[in-house]
């Protein structure tokens, strides 16, 4: 120590240090108290991770699910038209007191917020014609299981787009948990839908024209006829399917053996995540409610016609080569028909003039730019109790290579969304109930 510098006043220095340390400790404690208080006040939206659906998507990279994933780096974007809607299923009745809309640059200047207990009857709890975009917090008061954003006027030339659609309140249910224990890594769920009735009707190709088609065998919704539409299928609210919640309608041309109609005894409809790469699979969206898909061609000209897509084979007779026309199955076996439906949607239309153009098959294991939205692939597997010479068989549409299938989707939106989320995207084999 320098002898010219007076020694420090250690008592006062220690006192000042003690006071400073005490103050610092108090400050830190106060800060920690504040931080803890803020953390405990954070709310998780009732909507986060819940099943969600939308009127449209701009492309496969902007699905409805991105609006409720809690990730501000992903978004839902609609087609470039009015009106549009986004709907979330909270899982159970809830009291809703706040909705937060985190808009991307493409926002809506006019919109409503609605709630519903059943997904069909709606009550408006907020309306505006002066939307500002950005991050809008709306204090509302409503009750229901479903919450819907209806946009009626876009503020830009584009569609409408949300980083997040957040619903706050009390009630609802927590998102389903990942399955426990061993799982089979196959992206699949299914429905077993026995035969219900025969009619010379086709509500997709010949709507409103009873008797206008060749004979069809129907599966699933027993109400299906030439006048069927989504509303009538939903009103019927019955099905031969397992699970019974699948009130969709499936139909094919009737098979005849020696001119006697024969119905399949095995009728399985698989929903698959195959035929596309991992990136496309991860983007798979629920099949939109009301979507109509036709696979195969009733007017195919021969087994080499590329529009003939069905395959015939024999159950438990692998030695018989499959083909596009009927095959000769040994006695005691059954003849099978396999038909894969297209799984790439254009993101806009539930049907098209030719009943085909709104859907496409993957190209190079991904959905083409013209049809950017991947949905589960529907695979129809029918097993007929017939064997022997193909000369004895015909379809109502003609030879075996004219086999085709029609699908009118009426799955409840929440159930379809859950199965895509829990079975298809994570590549898990699920049963009739949509669980591993």
UniProtKB/TrEMBL annotation:
Domain F5/8 type C span(s) in chain numbering: 34-170
UniProt cross-references to SUPFAM superfamilies, sorted A to Z: Galactose-binding domain-like
Entry-linked Gene3D superfamilies: Galactose-binding domain-like (2.60.120.260)
Native source species: Streptosporangium subroseum
Protein name according to UniProt: F5/8 type C domain-containing protein
UniProt superkingdom: Bacteria
Alphabetized UniProt keyword annotations: Signal
Composition-biased stretches (Polar residues): 53-65
Region of interest: Disordered: 41-68
PANTHER family in the cross-refs: DOMAIN PROTEIN, PUTATIVE (AFU_ORTHOLOGUE AFUA_6G11970)-RELATED, PTHR43662
Family annotation (InterPro entries): DUF1996, FA58C, Galactose-bd-like_sf
